[in-house]
Amino acid sequence: MSIQWFPGHMNKAKKEIKDLVKNIDVVIELLDARAPFSSCNPLLQNIIQYKKKIRLLNKADLADEKLTQKWINFFQKDSDSYAIAGNKDDLKQKNQLIKLAQSLSPNRTSFEKPLRVMITGIPNVGKSTLINKLIGKKSAKTGDIPAVTKANQCLVLTDSFLVYDTPGMMWQKIKYPQIGYNLAICNSIGRNACDEELLALYLITYLREHYIEPFVMRYKLNSHEILNMVEGEILQLVGKKRGCILSGGEIDIQKASEIIIQDFRHGKLGRVSLETPALWEKWIKSAKLHEEEAEDNND
Ligand code: G4P
Question: Using CA positions, which residue lies closest to atom 26 of ligand 1?
Answer without folding.
Answer: 59
